[in-house]
Amino acid sequence: MHGDDDSAGRGVATDGGEEATFEAIMEKFADSPSQQAVIRLLLERGFSVNDEGRVVSGGIEIPNTGIAREVGVDRRVVDATTDAILDDDQLRPIFQNISAIPSLLDLAPVLDLTALTVTVRDADRPGIVARVTGAIADRGISIRQTITEDPEFTDEPQLYVVTDEPLSGGLINEIREFPFVHAIELR
């Protein structure tokens, strides 16, 4: 889901000049669905791999047995995957620099915030984030957080917007009418 930036959705250029798209990363592990499952988890959760080949979140090490249990593979598959990441000049900078961000989405009800989930169609269309957040901002409502799912990771990408105030029925209807909106959920 893109704002108005023309570079959105393109792969990440690495030192070797090649672009690293999700498909290109997964292709490197095409012969091992188990390693692909590990890669997908690392990317989805924002877990990185340190110089010792350990999976970390910030400075906190996550045991490979926990990663293995989560994706249903043997711990040795996680070891082999992190070794392959460190041995690959294209993958190493990606997985050593990825990070997770805290989400207010599940905390919204506890913190008396409003959470809007917009499921979109044609997620590669430019301006989705700008159009939704613009409609909210036009009503003077402060946005606390916006998170988008990458259409390469999910079949039904969603835009999450957490606001300080409730959203009116008129605003919800306006957003629902945007041509890229498939569904809306309000928490």
Structure in words:
- It is a single chain.
- This protein is of the alpha+beta class.
- It has two domains: 12-97; 114-186, ACT domain (Alpha-Beta Plaits, 2-Layer Sandwich), CATH 3.30.70.260.
- Helix content is 35%, strand content 20%.
- It has seven helices and nine strands, in the order ββααβββαααβαββαβ.
- Strands 7-8-6-9 form a four-stranded antiparallel β-sheet, with helices on one face.
- Helix 2 (33-45) crosses helix 4 and helix 3 crosses helix 4 (75-87).
- The radius of gyration is 19 Å and the shape is elongated.
DSSP summary, beta strand count: 9
- Write down the secondary-structure element order: EEHHEEEHHHEHEEHE
Major beta sheet summary = 4 strands, antiparallel
Helix segment count? 7
Strand content: 15-25%
The neighbouring-strand order within the major sheet is: 7-8-6-9
Distance between the termini: 21 Å
The average pLDDT value, as a whole number, equals 89
- Assign the structural class, choosing from mainly alpha, mainly beta, alpha/beta, alpha+beta, or little secondary structure: alpha+beta
Low-pLDDT ranges: 2-16
Radius of gyration in whole Å, from Cα? 19 Å
